[in-house]
Every structure is written in C-alpha cells, then in structure tokens.
Specification:
mainly alpha, Non-ribosomal Peptide Synthetase Peptidyl Carrier Protein, Chain A, 0% strand, globular
Length: 82
C-alpha cells in the first residue's frame, strides 16, 4: 500500500527528475544543484497546492535538501486533510 508520504516523495522526485535525473531525497539544493533561495522559492511555486498543501515562500526557501521539500509538503497535506 502506498502511503501519502510515498506519494508526496514520488511527486517531488518526478518534478526534480525532469531537470536533474540523478536527484534523490538526499540531494542538496544548493551544493548539489547550485540553487539559490529564489530558485528554491520558484520550485515551491510549481509544487504548491498539491492536495491542498499550502505553505509560505519562506518555509519553502528554508528547505536545504529534496527530502526537506518532501517533509514540508507532507506536513502541509496532513494539515489540509486533517
């Protein structure tokens, strides 16, 4: 059975694999991908609203790794599905 967290992780990884095929949940957004805060915020704009998830730009820009994005969206989905 696929969990909500598994679906969120797949959604985020699918997004990243379009541009960075080797990205994993441990990939560093700044060190490995060379992204700055604006780039990370822009990714957040593309990923926002998944299944009712809502987060602020600063919450998203604070993510350092792909797994941080997964965790943020997962937490927000749980609140939305509450």
């Amino acid at each position: 059975m696929t969990t909500t967290r598994d679906r969120v992780e797949q959604y985020v990884l699918d997004y990243f694999h379009r541009q960075w095929p080797s990205a994993t949940d441990g990939t560093s957004l700044a060190d490995d991908l060379g992204l700055d805060a604006y780039d990370i915020y822009d990714i957040g704009r593309h990923l926002r609203g998944w299944r009712g998830a809502s987060y602020t730009p600063s919450e998203f820009a604070a993510c350092a790794k792909v797994k941080d994005i997964v965790t943020l969206i997962f937490q927000k989905v749980h609140v939305a599905e509450g």
